[in-house]
Amino acid sequence: MPLALLALAIGAFGIGTTEFVIVGLLPEVAVEFGVSIPAAGWLVTGYALGVLVGAPLLTVLGARASRKKVLMLLMGLFIAGNALSAVAPVYAVMLVGRIVASLAHGAFFGVGSVVAAGLVAPERKASAISLMFTGLTVATIVGVPGGTMIGQSAGWRVTFAIVAGLGVLGLLGVARLVPETGRPEGVTVRTEFAAFRNVQVWLAMAMTVLGFGGVFAAITYIAPMMTEVAGYSAGAVTWLLVLFGVGTFAGNLLGGRYADRALMPLLFVSLSALALVLLLFTFTAHDKVLAAITLTLTGALGFASVPPLQKWVLDQAAAAPTLASAANIGAFNLGNALAAWLGGLTIAGGLGYTSPNWVGALLTGAALLLSFLAASLDRRAKAAPATAEALPVG
């Protein structure tokens, strides 16, 4: 494994930690700043919106620089945002800090995916991408529960200071370990946007929105579902999320390994299995053991689709992949927001805390249909040149 992948994984770990750890610290933040929990929730929403905006914007702005320099600048932005959150004197300043940190999120994973894929042989691209995303999945196992416990015992400001320190480690790792390849030749803002003329790029992002949205339809409301339906105590939710994190870690590694061998078959299997598991979650949520198992499988199957989807975008936008890759990271966050909203509507409509699972299953099923369409279009595109060569001349 190239050591540069370790540097990218450290950056991903810090980003994953800061994205999710705020959820466990909202009560403490709300009390200190004297705001309501819903108002403090804007620290989550603002971050997601920042990712959506920052992914394409910063990627475009960095199109004229080398990818290593872009990654270093993004880590600097991440450090600044978390440091600002750690010392924020008022709520508004912390919100600004969260948004500043979020701007680096999508572009880091987008540019980092391209860099990771370029560090290895073509047949190992998905594996390299999955190794970088391992940092994100480890954050759900270690960083988020650990950061939550530190924040609850030593103060939430300490958590954000530690996350800023992780950003410094990531920056130093990128500076020392990621090779300097210079500015990508022939790549301009215009060529980056040209990648979006390919319908396959749009299909991949739609699959990302719907497939990953299916996961977060269930996960967003996992606390009330596990406490009110499965019967767990509130204190057990942290460790249930660790199980989810273990699933994401395993699924991500397996997805990276098998996407290099059979990308589309892996998508078919992971998306269809995820849709089935989410349907079953409606029933297994009434049993503690089965609910925990289903939660772990949801994380595994959901993240098994991440490396193949990211690699599919890189393959389809091979001439100028950076912006398309970053936009696909934004699509993950769009899926999170869409699923959370739809799941909330079903709960508000009186359908119960398990109803978001049905929403997730429908979203994932739609992603599966799009994967069939993408595979069909790909087969036709590959068959067209062969057919043209077979036609008689004259």
Automatic annotation (TrEMBL):
Transmembrane segments: 42-63, 70-93, 99-121, 128-150, 156-178, 199-223, 229-250, 262-283, 289-309, 330-352, 358-377
InterPro entries in the cross-refs: MFS, MFS_dom, MFS_Efflux_Transporters, MFS_trans_sf
Family annotation (SUPFAM superfamilies): MFS general substrate transporter
Top-level taxon of the source organism: Bacteria
GO terms for MF: transmembrane transporter activity
Keyword Cell membrane: yes
Record carries keyword Hydrolase: no
Membrane topology type: Multi-pass membrane protein
Primary location class: membrane
Ranges for domain Major facilitator superfamily (MFS) profile: 4-379
Keywords: Cell membrane, Membrane, Transmembrane, Transmembrane helix
UniProt-annotated location(s): Cell membrane
Pfam families documented for this protein: MFS_1
Gene3D superfamilies named in the record: MFS general substrate transporter like domains (1.20.1250.20)
Gene Ontology CC annotations of this record: plasma membrane
PANTHER family linked: CHLORAMPHENICOL EFFLUX PUMP RV0191, PURINE EFFLUX PUMP PBUE
The protein's name: DHA1 family inner membrane transport protein
Source taxonomy: Bacteria, Bacillati, Actinomycetota, Actinomycetes, Pseudonocardiales
